[in-house]
Amino acid sequence: MENFFKFKERGTDLRTEVIAGIATFMTMAYIIFVNPGILSAAGVPFAGAATATAFGAALMCIAMGFISNRPFALASGMGLNAVVTFSVIGFQQANVPWQVGMSVIFVEGLLILVLVLTGLREAVMNAIPLDLKRAIGVGIGLFITMIGLNEGGFIQPNSATLISLGDFTQPYVWVSIIGLLAILMFMALKVKGDILWGILVATLAALLFGVTKLPTTLLAAPNFETFLAPFQTPEGTSSMAITQIFTPALLLMVFAIMLTDFFDTMGTVISVGEQAGFLEKDGSVPGIRNILTVDSVAASVGGLFGASSITTYIESAAGVAEGGRTGLTAIVTGVLFAIAAFFAPLVGMIGGGFDIGNAAHYGQMAGAGFTIPEGSFYMYPITAGALIVVGFLMMRTVREIPWTDLEEAFPAFLTIVGIPLTYNISYGIGFGFISYVLIKVFHGKAAKVHPLMWIVAAAFVVTFILPAIQGLLG
């Protein structure tokens, strides 16, 4: 095991890797319940999507661990699942059958795999200026922090100011506070596994405050009805789903999702790699080809299983914060996802959401005229503190950015603020890329911009105006 994973070389050990894998799983476990909940709005069978989510994550985490030997975990991507549900399939199957939507994801993953195997995806990563790479990591750190603050109830939506202070009279907010303080205490005392112990303390607090409860049953039988979705024949049609994607609108969605997948993973790998300490001085990632290959295959596997696109998770940073440095961290996470497919009720106690429905957390939105459907909002207070701390740890590289140099600093700034404020890693990266190219042009340095940066910046421009293009195509 030492020879394969290289524990000593990377300054880790078996115990640390196992703890890191558990911590990563606990911060990601919510996806087992959230993903099928989102996909089911478009007609994807909930039970099948839940099984596909768990087994898809398990398979790709284990593959990442063995093939890349890096602590990156994968699961169905948040944001991408909403795009599949509401933009590709359409609410309540208004546009295309859900199997066709999964076919879009399946093909998109294959196309990204081609880009990896031809070396183009790696070349784009190497073409990104170092300060933009640093900014991506910082922006994702802020993004994770914002997610944690929102999931924990520290902040809440506000129609006038966008965001305002949360309702600290709510029990789930107390759980978030206790979890955060516990992690900080364990960090101060230098307790090994501080984030994991903090999550466990938050779980106990959630039980005491009635935010979560012990499950009445432990086992849940897997359901495989969404598997091989692209090769199913949807009801009311006469051909396999994958043959139905060749329309202008769906092919545009293949391009848009491919671009998002492409740069979400790129940002995650750079930022988590920086935190783990295995980036080279020029910002390159050793062994990036294997990492990107697994991630690309994962996207297709997500479509094949009916789980939406599977991608590398920013929550991998939780395991890295625990000391995870090898593929064993990802493998442990994958094994836990596989077990979770059979013990979903137990996992739901920790990683599942607390249904707040029309609770006071969204009172201001309701008062401002927003429609708040009962049971549609969930908080994740048990893992909120872990995400906030991980976000803090990822902010450290902000000091490396030359803030007095406009050409480097302003694109970095737009990247940092763009990622959390658009709630999308790729969009924030797009802001940075486009502004970087334009500022170089304004300074008469267009020739110094890498050709791939021009191409990618143009691709982002197309993405941002894609709704207008789709409108012209009908």
- Gap from first CA to last CA: 56 Å
State the order of secondary-structure elements, H for helix, E for strand: HHHHEHHHHEEHHHHEHHHEHEHHHHH
> What low-confidence regions span 5 or more consecutive residues with pLDDT below 50?
358-376
- For the report, how would you describe the main beta sheet? 2 strands, antiparallel
User: What is the approximate shape?
Assistant: globular
Average pLDDT confidence is: 86
Approximate helicity band: 55-70%
Number of structurally distinct domains:
1
Quaternary class: single chain
From the alpha carbons, calculate the radius of gyration and give it in angstroms. 21 Å
The tally of helices reads 21
**What would you call the structural class?**
mainly alpha
Strand content: under 5%
Q: Strand order within the widest sheet?
A: 1-4
Count the beta strands: 6
Textual characterization of the structure:
It is globular and about 60 Å long. It has one domain (2-217, 237-473). α11 crosses α12. It is mainly alpha-helical and 474 residues long. The protein has a two-stranded antiparallel ribbon with strand order 1-4. Strands 2-3 form a two-stranded antiparallel ribbon. A two-stranded antiparallel sheet has the order 5-6. 62% of the residues lie in helices and 4% in strands.
